[in-house]
Amino acid sequence: MNPFVFHTPTRVYFGENSASSCGDFLRELGGTRVLMVADAFLEKSGALKPLIESIKESTGLEPILFTDVPSDSDLDCVNNATVIAREHGCNALVAVGGGSVIDTAKVINICLTFGGEILDYQGLNIIERKLLPLIAVPTTAGTGAEVSFVAMVKDHSESKKLMFGSRFLAPDVAILDPLMIVSLPAKLTAATGIDAVTHGIECFVASGTYSVFTDAICLESLRLLFEFLPIATIDGGNIEARSATLVASCMAGVAFTNSGVGITHALAHSVGAKYGTHHGMTNAVFLPHGMRFNFDTVYPRYARIAQFIGLAKPNDDGDDKALAAMLVNKVEDLLRQLKLPLTLRELGLPEFSDENLAELVDLAGADPAIMFNPREASSDDLTQLLKRAY
Amino acid sequence: MAVFTDTDELHRVMIDLWTAIKNEKEMAAQLLTSRLIVTFHYREPDGRLTVDCSDGQEMVITVGDCSKKPIVEMFMKSSVAHDFWLGKVNVPLALIQGKIVSKGPVNKALALLPAIKPAYGLYPSVIEKNGLKASIT
Description:
The structure holds two protein chains of two kinds. In chain A, 52% of the residues lie in helices and 11% in strands. Chain A has 13 helices and nine strands. Chain A has helices at residues 22-29, 40-45, 49-59, 75-87, 99-114, 186-204, 212-234, 239-259, 263-275, 279-308, 320-337, 354-365, 379-389, and strands at residues 11-14, 34-38, 64-66, 92-97, 123-124, 134-138, 150-155, 160-165, 173-176. In chain A, a hairpin with a 4-residue loop joins strand 7 and strand 8. In chain A, helix 7 runs antiparallel to helix 8 (239-259). The two termini of chain A are 39 Å apart. The mean pLDDT of chain A is 95. Chain B starts with 6 loop residues before the first helix and ends in an 8-residue tail after the last helix. By secondary structure, chain B is an alpha+beta fold. The chains are: A alpha/beta, B alpha+beta. The A-B interface holds A 3-5, 120, 122-126, 160, 162-163, 165, 167, 206-209, 258-260, 362, 365-368, 371-372, 376 and B 72-73, 90-93, 95-98, 100-108, 110-111, 113-114. Strand 5 (123-124) of chain A pairs antiparallel with strand 5 of chain B.
């Protein structure tokens, strides 16, 4: 067995109406003045009400609400929120939203806890002690940000993404309330859900970092996603399907934050950075290509997934390559079923100039995710994958 | 047992290695293209080495204090650095385990990993030259 490390500092609390327990957790964590970072539409829709009531009951004070978070969050947003939080003496954070909101709250938490220059904390494992209490309530089922150790925000002045990675960045509590995601539109349900599928598959084959812990988590997460993601997409009000995808996405988050992702994410990050495409939808385009690229290196692992999610009977002695190929086909079927884009062209990208292609290859080649890919990818490989995905 | 007996020995080895890298035209050219300034902070024994590629023309190697502000800083035990140059470190795992700490735009540093791989081949002779052959068996 290879050496590994597995760590999950986040307490996960699941249940219908669980969001209204937020105040109880805050009390336990010692939070008395709360900055709530949330998607603006959640405020308008009234979805934040049970959380606000719960926090008010626990602390005796209304949380300070910050909803000015762009879909691709940035340092300006972090700095603005930090100023507001300081003015009000906030000593705890609650993040309610998708990955961008939760990542923003993580970076605000660094600023609030340590002060100083945020760029001093950019990097991996720089933060070595506990931050202020942070509770995350995801309103999408896909990113895994509610349990992950990383956060990314944009620095528009430098046109680049800043990455912060430390196990201390993980929220203290993740509240998974399926009622918080029932109104998520079908398109976003599918797109964020396929992000979770990608986490599960890429983590399961990550280069020398997966473990028996992440294996078990990935397999069950993928089983739930393949079964329930199509249902949650078609029938958003189906609480069982919403619950399954929410929990599965969180599980995949626990797994990938311990073992990494791979080439699909590296390519999706590069295209997302250049063209501003939706992360989940971009992953959808690249996932079959990434899987085929890695096929010969990891097909026995794909075969295990195929077997676990029921593509073959447990005692079926079929050969691994055939089983692995069934998994790739199943992923493509799922993408079609979810009506997700299958090509970069469908995603709205213009045809690549040589210059753009070279830039994307450079970005993907320098993306930390590529380090975890089980097969090394040359610039030529990345170029071919981008062309094929177009 | 520590690979390097003291800071001087660590610095000597790392200077020799980076000088060898500097003399490998292809490798040096790729590093210079990055225009990065990377400082490596070692512990047990303590040491510090900065590789400055900022002018794109010449790689400047400095041990100890350096007047140039690094773009990326890497922190690790000297033994991890030794194992890394022997090609024995699974970098993703070392980052997950916290054995390597990276400060700054980590993607820029990671992008150089493929470029410096040929240096794995240079390291054993550097070690041998410094009388540390036993540390690689």
